[in-house]
Each structure stands twice: as C-alpha cells, then as structure tokens.
Amino acid sequence: MTLVSPHGEYGGPVRVALNQLAALRDLGHDVVLAGAARGYDVIPSEVDGIPARLFPARTVIPGIGFAGVGSPALLRSLRRHVGEFDVVHVHAARDLVTLPAARIAQARGVATVLQTHGMIDETAHPLAVPLDAALTRPALTAARAVTYLTERERSSLEEVGRGRAHLIALPNGVPEAPFAEPTAPELLYLARLAPRKRPRQFVEAAARLAPEFPGARFTLVGPDEGEGAAVRAAIDTSGYSDRIRWEGALEPARTGERMRQASGYVLPAVDEPYPMSVLEAMSAGLPVVVTDTCGLAPAVRSADAGFVTDGELGAVVAAMRRLLEDPVGARERGERGRALTRERFTMPAIAERLVELYAR
C-alpha cells in the first residue's frame, strides 16, 4: 500500500485493502498489510485489527503528490521476507512504493495480483513514460491477474500493458453497516478536500440551499489535499457558517459511524473511478448524489439509490434540494441503495473471488 496514515489521506484504496484483508481472514487465511506510513507518533503493528508491517514513508520526488512517495525500508524488508508469502496483492499506482514492491515479489517468483483503483491510465506525462517502461508495464504483464473496476479502467490497462496483462473484473465491496439514524437533516461530504473531489462546489450548493432549509446542516469531513483554504473562505463568506461546516480529517475507522449520522451523501467529484465512500454511504442506507463521470453512477441510476447529475452546480443543487424537501423519498432511495450493496457488493463474495484469483 502506497500510504497508510491515521487520518486516511490516501483515501479509498486503504479502505478497500482493509476490507479485503478482514474478509480473507474470516475465511481462515493469514493476512498482513504492508506499506509506507506517516503521521503516526509510533508506527502501529496493526490497523483496524489487521496485522501490519509498516515502514516510514519518504518524499522521494517532491511536488508530485503520492506519486513521489517511496519507502526504502519497506523495499528492504520485502527483499528479505517476501518469500514467506504465497501471494502479494498490490494496490498499485504510479508511485515508488507499490511498483517496486510488485517487481520485487515477481523477481522472487511470488504470485502477484495488482489492483489499480483507476490510478494507472493512459498518459503522456514526461515522468510516466520512463516509469511505465521500467516498472509499470513489467509489473502489469508479470502479474497473475490485474483487476479493474470499470470498462474505462480496463481500456486504460489494456493500453498501458500493451495487451499483455491478464485483466479481470473485480468490484469493490463493503461490509454490511448498521442503518443510518440521523437526528436532523444533514447532507454530508466525506472525502479528501482535493480539487477533483470539488468540495468547494458542495459549499456553494449548500450556501444556496441553506436559506430554503433552515433546519438543515451541510458538513464536510476529510483531510486537506489542496482545497482546505478555499473551502474555509467559501464557508466564511457564505453567511451560513453556523450550518455549513468543515469538521476536518477523521480516522478511517470512525468514518462509518460519522456517515450514519447524516441523512444524505453528496460527492460532486469528477472522473471518480469507484468511490468507496459512495458504497459505504449506500450500505448505511444513505441516498447519494454523484456525477455522471463516477464509476458507480450506472448502479446508482439503475437502483434509483439517489441522483446522478451532470456535475454542473445547478444540477447538484437540484439533487440536494430533492433530498431535503422529500425526506420520505430520500429514505426510500437510501433503502434501495442498501439493498443494492447487499446484492452486488458484499465482502464475503469479494473474498471468495480473490481466493480464486490467488489460486490461478
């Protein structure tokens, strides 16, 4: 795993990995989470009850975000111990943690499964071209399987791997969650405050709706990934800072509990491959608002589990308004989303599928 931290800066991939590891352990398998870590006073030996081997993260190349993260200590440990494992499941991205880790395992003859979370796509970025030649493409083609979430991701992996990667569809899954029991109308944004997630649009929409719904609250929860100052400024100038609030980051183990306090979930992000936060919201029975570039948009639309918008501010406002003005209908949409996750995104089924991939 590229980065594990107490406030979940790396987002969905860590949640996916922990869900998978817990479900695999329930099937009787021995599991370990390995990765780079930062933000801890003392690096933990387990995360959410999962045994962990975590090593200090280092910024190897500054200015390029997670892609510049490395962990020499992790790679040294892998070289010594990777032969102890039957399979290494790599949550891969174009970075200096997961790609070298995959190649170390492959060089030692240990089976690898790569899961890319939509993070390895076609690009002409000057740093990606040599990285793909040296690490990305060899890692993809040597893997026992490379999983994808959407047809768009499959197409990208086909291109990057030049048709030589063994591609397998695998959805994300979520554990079954208790049903949400909000005490007041609250629309929640729970994600990193990063430009692509568009937290400012959530604040702008909330500012338009606040005078219409004086009993409603609009809350952002998540770590700052570049938009924090702009979000604070937008809240301060909205005139409704008592009801539009950013609560800051929350440790991943507590996000489910926080989500169940809300009455609806809004993620205005663009080009979001398969957001775990949306799955978690639906699992808790929350109606959701997403954009049509979200990988889960077809599922949300077909199940009538919320609203799919074109991403324009007016459309997002209209969708949020419908959740607030019709709480009974919103609750029914949430119940349909909960049923959808039980039918298609259960962790036991995902774990069984993973075991099949590992045994190939």
TrEMBL record:
Question: What is this protein's record name?
Answer: Glycosyl transferase family 1
Instruction: Domain (Glycosyl transferase family): give its ranges.
Output: 182-337
Top-rank lineage group of the source organism? Bacteria
Glycosyltransferase subfamily 4-like N-terminal domain boundaries: 11-173
Q: Name one GO molecular function term.
A: glycosyltransferase activity
SUPFAM superfamilies xref list: UDP-Glycosyltransferase/glycogen phosphorylase
Q: What are the alphabetically sorted keywords of the record?
A: Glycosyltransferase, Transferase
Q: Please give one Pfam family short name.
A: Glycos_transf_1
Q: Which InterPro entries match?
A: Glyco_trans_1 (IPR001296), Glyco_trans_4-like_N (IPR028098)
